[in-house]
């Protein structure tokens, strides 16, 4: 059909713009279409007794239309609305087309919205009147023929609406599950990014501190140079190992939702002393006070460790050489309070984008706590966080 003349036909006849395009049938579609075709042939065959006593020309016409209507069932996926309307018009007088009209009505109810399928249903109900007047069932009579046809049309239409609603519900649930899966993957990547920032920033700041010491004291004793070089090598190795593990997690497809990706052992409150010792070996003056039990959950211990780690990293970046005072206090029911205090000094050469404190704030809020930082009139920088510790 020429494009400029498509507007002359009602859109209900044309259907969707893609309705005329060939669609690839799946195995299930082929099975359903074959069953529908056999069902239609059976319905046409059941109407043969109604042709007894009719003229020879009418019987021939009925049989030809019945055969053509059975063949037309294979077009119900491509042009459901057009097939239903054409079959409805012919079924107003020819009884052997009634089976195709019922199948086409069901197809329209399943594959088209109510604003279209409702009009097709109305057309089916209207055509029952001439059928009941001109060619009523010999047993039922005109009135009951119209009643039976109305009940049948409404039942088939309602069945189609139920099937359509179920398909839409399944489609919606699948879409929601897909969105939820994507959101879960996004949150997991954000968590990995926060972990990566905290770990790498800590490792690289220690590495830079040792490298700066070598640059500042090129005439240091060989033992100190060897010790600093070993610390640089260990920090670089640990940073590469952490980066390799995170990249390995990010590269995993994660197609199986039941697949559990093993994680590396996460730090706890018991690892804070080792973290402080590592910073002391790098030349920092760190005082750590821990007054908290060891019964903290894994998530609480990990979050507290990362906050202390980032506080030490910030101190190395922005106040190299300044003493750092850390306190971790709390217990079950009252929460865990973490406070870091250091003098504000000259920033080091390590670049910073300010994302560390933002990430720590997000980490604390996700855990149900809070984090704040400020500068005191005495020239100290204070970072304080509170994390819930349920009983």
Automatic annotation (TrEMBL):
Keyword Ribosomal protein attached: no
Transmembrane segments: 30-48, 83-109, 116-134, 140-162
Keywords: ATP-binding, Kinase, Membrane, Nucleotide-binding, Phosphoprotein, Transferase, Transmembrane, Transmembrane helix, Two-component regulatory system
Pfam families xref list: DUF7134, HisKA_3
Name this protein carries in UniProt: histidine kinase
Known EC number: 2.7.13.3
All residue ranges annotated as the DUF7134 domain in the record: 27-167
Reactions the enzyme catalyzes: ATP + protein L-histidine = ADP + protein N-phospho-L-histidine
The keyword Kinase belongs to this UniProt entry's keyword annotation: yes
InterPro entries, per the entry: DUF7134, HATPase_C_sf, Sensor_HK_TwoCompSys, Sig_transdc_His_kin_sub3_dim/P
Annotated GO MF terms: ATP binding; phosphorelay sensor kinase activity; protein dimerization activity
Cellular component terms per the entry's GO annotation: membrane
Originating species: Nonomuraea dietziae
Domain Signal transduction histidine kinase subgroup 3 dimerisation and phosphoacceptor: 188-254
């Amino acid at each position: 059909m020429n494009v400029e003349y498509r507007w002359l036909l009602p859109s209900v006849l044309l259907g969707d713009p893609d309705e005329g395009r060939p669609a690839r049938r799946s195995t299930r579609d082929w099975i359903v279409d074959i069953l529908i075709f056999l069902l239609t042939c059976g319905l046409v065959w059941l109407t043969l007794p109604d042709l007894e006593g009719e003229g020879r020309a009418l019987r021939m016409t009925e049989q030809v239309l019945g055969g053509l209507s059975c063949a037309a069932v294979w077009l119900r996926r491509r042009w459901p609305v057009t097939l239903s309307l054409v079959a409805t018009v012919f079924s107003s007088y020819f009884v052997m087309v009634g089976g195709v009209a019922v199948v086409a009505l069901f197809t329209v109810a399943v594959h088209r919205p109510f604003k279209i399928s409702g009009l097709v249903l109305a057309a089916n109900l209207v055509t029952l009147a001439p059928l009941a007047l001109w060619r009523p069932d010999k047993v039922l009579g005109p009135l009951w023929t119209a009643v039976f046809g109305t009940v049948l049309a409404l039942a088939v239409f309602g069945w189609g609406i139920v099937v359509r609603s179920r398909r839409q519900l399944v489609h919606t649930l699948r879409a929601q599950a897909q969105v939820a899966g994507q959101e879960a993957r996004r949150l997991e990547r954000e968590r990995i990014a926060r972990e990566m920032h905290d770990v790498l920033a800590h490792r690289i700041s220690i590495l830079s501190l040792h490298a700066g010491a070598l640059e500042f004291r090129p005439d240091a004793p060989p033992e100190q140079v060897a010790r600093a070089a070993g610390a640089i090598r260990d920090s670089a190795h640990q940073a590469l190992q952490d980066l390799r593990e995170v990249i390995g997690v990010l590269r995993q497809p994660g197609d199986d939702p039941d697949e559990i990706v093993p994680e590396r052992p996460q730090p706890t409150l018991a690892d804070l002393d080792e973290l402080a010792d590592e910073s002391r070996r790098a030349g920092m003056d760190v005082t750590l006070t821990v007054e908290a039990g060891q019964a903290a959950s894994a998530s609480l211990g990990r979050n507290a460790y990362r906050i202390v780690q980032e506080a030490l990293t910030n101190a190395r970046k922005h106040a190299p050489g300044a003493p750092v005072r850390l306190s971790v206090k709390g217990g079950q029911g009252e929460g865990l309070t973490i406070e870091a205090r250091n003098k504000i000094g000259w920033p080091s050469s390590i670049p910073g984008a300010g994302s560390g404190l933002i990430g720590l704030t997000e980490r604390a809020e996700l855990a149900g706590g809070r984090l704040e930082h400020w500068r005191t009139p005495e020239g100290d920088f204070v970072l304080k966080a509170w994390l819930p510790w349920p009983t």
